[in-house]
């Protein structure tokens, strides 16, 4: 893991860009004498890790006493896109504009993206836990729910997870949701244009966790109220501190 | 309003029993130099206001900086029961033991109970707001959701409400839910034996409020996790402080 830039932000949080092989990432850490619990924070895979809303979420969470890290998935954010990526994205746009069903396109596009992202996140986790000042335990907080499900099943170091029920979750992750047994907080926007409500409720039902909480708020995809950011941190506090 | 007993509790909260005409009530107040916002706290109408879980909720909320008041409805708790009350309760028990549908029995029993409770709660509110040290604004926090809906529609002084989706809500209140426009927090136990989940989700959908949040947790009727008590106070803090 190589740090390539750093800046100290107004709120005292240190923001560092890093690379791990081909993977570009960002790490936010507050000043702390004690080892920090770590939060892996993802975003919708179509957005860069520099997406302002995710950065705001990361900085807020760091200021509450967490090391927070995010990376871009292959073909996303700052990373080069293959011709196959471009074709898949173009086909998705075309189908959406034409009002055609997009589930199968999502399935074939996002399914492999999730599979390929998991070893990268695990390698990043290994590297982060070797840094001085980061001591675990580890949580996941993410807009990319499908990745979170896959990671929660594959990675025993993840102790709690907050998911945003707002995007397409491939069949494989809908099925393995029952294997997720860590404490969960699932956020749902009640009128999310792109996310059928019943599918989100079915996902909540499917999780195997004994402690799982659903927070549903009125409004569309991007309308999550600010207090959910604080609630999300309080959920992490209960399980990671 | 006549105070008939008082005791200072361990947490510094003053607990006072009162009567207002025939109505028996309890008021919990913390020590405070500034006027306190007021929370009307109800319980499932079949339980007394001395129900230990409700008292714990009331004391916790008072210690967080609220005047909290509860009264017993006619025929409930410490109040005398009429022969008609006793017949209705006996019929309800019989039907439940026989596995018969109980919706219509609930309807004819609880419908009038809600109607009759409203003027008593409003009279109590009038009297409470005349006490020194209680300054409003006013919130409602209650296990008796049907009463809360009726009060939220009838009583413009109520600025925010937390409901527990765990009991029978008469048709009249299900219909007037759309007239409720104050900020709401609805608590749902996902596996509540006595409360069909879809009915609770339909109720959440029906409320007319622009700001409404649903918190659903795994488990049965009495399994609400302790952190929802704190979340409920934080909801009140956002709207009453």
Can you tell me about this structure?
Chains A, B: Keywords: Hydrolase. Chains A, B: This is Dienelactone hydrolase. The structure is a homodimer of 241-residue chains. The first copy, chain A, is α/β, with parallel strands linked by helices. Chain A has one domain: Rossmann fold, CATH 3.40.50.1820. In chain A, strands 1-2-3-5-4-6-7-8-9 form a nine-stranded mixed beta sheet, sandwiched between helices. In chain A, helix 3 packs across helix 4. In chain A, 41% of the residues are buried. The mean pLDDT of chain A is 93. At the A-B interface, helix 6, strand 9 and helix 7 of A face helix 6, strand 9 and helix 7 of B.
- Alpha-beta classification of chain A: alpha/beta
Q: How far do the termini of chain A sit from each other?
A: 26 Å
**The top level CATH class name of chain A:** Alpha Beta
Give the quaternary arrangement of the chains. homodimer
| Element string of chain A (H = helix, E = strand) | EEEEHEHHEHEHEHEH
The most extensive interface between chains reads: A-B, 20 and 20 residues
Count the domains of chain A. 1
- Low-confidence blocks of residues of chain A: none
Q: How many DSSP-defined strands of chain A? A: 9
**Gyration radius of chain A, rounded:** 17 Å
How many DSSP H or I helices of chain A?
Answer: 7
Percent strand of chain A equals: 25-35%
Helix content of chain A: 25-40%
User: Under the CATH scheme, which architecture of chain A would be assigned?
Assistant: 3-Layer(aba) Sandwich
- Please name the fourth-level CATH homologous superfamily of chain A: Alpha/Beta hydrolase fold, catalytic domain
Specify the overall morphology of chain A: globular
Largest sheet of chain A: 9 strands, mixed
Mean pLDDT of chain A: 93
CATH fold-level topology of chain A: Rossmann fold
Order of strands in the sheet with most strands of chain A? 1-2-3-5-4-6-7-8-9
């Amino acid at each position: 893991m190589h740090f390539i830039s750093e800046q100290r932000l107004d709120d005292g949080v240190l923001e560092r860009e890093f690379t791990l092989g081909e993977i570009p990432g960002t790490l936010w850490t507050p000043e702390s004498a004690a080892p920090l619990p770590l939060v892996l924070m993802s975003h919708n895979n179509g957005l860069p890790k520099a997406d302002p809303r995710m950065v705001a979420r990361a900085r807020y969470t760091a200021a509450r006493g967490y090391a927070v890290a995010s990376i871009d998935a292959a073909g996303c954010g700052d990373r080069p896109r293959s011709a196959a990526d471009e074709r898949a994205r173009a086909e998705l746009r075309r189908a959406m504009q034409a009002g055609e069903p997009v589930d199968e396109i999502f399935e074939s596009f996002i399914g492999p993206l999730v599979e390929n992202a998991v070893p990268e996140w695990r390698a990043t986790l290994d590297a982060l836990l070797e840094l001085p000042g980061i001591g675990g335990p580890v949580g996941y907080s993410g807009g990319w729910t499908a990745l979170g499900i896959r990671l929660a099943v594959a990675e025993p170091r993840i102790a709690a997870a907050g998911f945003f029920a707002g995007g397409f979750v491939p069949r494989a992750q809908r099925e393995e949701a029952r294997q997720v047994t860590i404490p969960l907080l699932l956020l749902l926007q009640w009128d999310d244009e792109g996310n059928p409500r019943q599918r989100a409720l079915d996902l909540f039902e499917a999780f195997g966790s004994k402690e799982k909480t659903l927070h549903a708020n009125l409004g569309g995809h991007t309308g999550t109220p600010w207090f959910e950011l604080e609630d999300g941190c309080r959920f992490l506090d209960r399980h990671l501190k």
